[in-house]
Structures are given as C-alpha cells and as structure tokens.
Amino acid sequence: MEFMIDLTFYYREGCWLCDKAEEMLNGLQEKYCLTINKISIDSDRELYELYQGDIPVIEFKDRSALHGVIKKKDLLRKLEENRI
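RE: above sequence
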C-alpha cells in the first residue's frame, strides 16, 4: 500500500536553512510520496510577519510543524506520524 503525505514548505529565497530543508525533502520525496506545497513568505506580507523568524517551516496536515534548524531525524519522525 502506498502512502502520500501532503505538506506545506514555507521558505525565503537566499535562506541557507531553507535550501538545506528543501534538499532533505527532495531526497525523501519518492520514499514518502510527498506532495509539497512550496510557498515563499516574501510573496505575502501576512506570511512574512508570521514566519520571518522561523523559516524554514514545514507544516503537516495535522497542523504540526518543524521550523528553523530542521534535523533529519525529526523530519523522518514527523513524516512517519503523518502517513495517511
């Protein structure tokens, strides 16, 4: 049985933490059948105000999130918890 995981990835251009988080997501995309809704916080003032100090932010369907320095072990745990 194949599982899919929908998540939202909030980022900023030129953010090295965002680049690192995106690389991790891309590396796990096939294994976890990830559907990634990628949103730049620079495109929306409200999102910028909300997330400017926390990016990158990976938000899952259950409304939990990882942010800032995201460790691979934490990302793997959240992916397992959010399999549907």
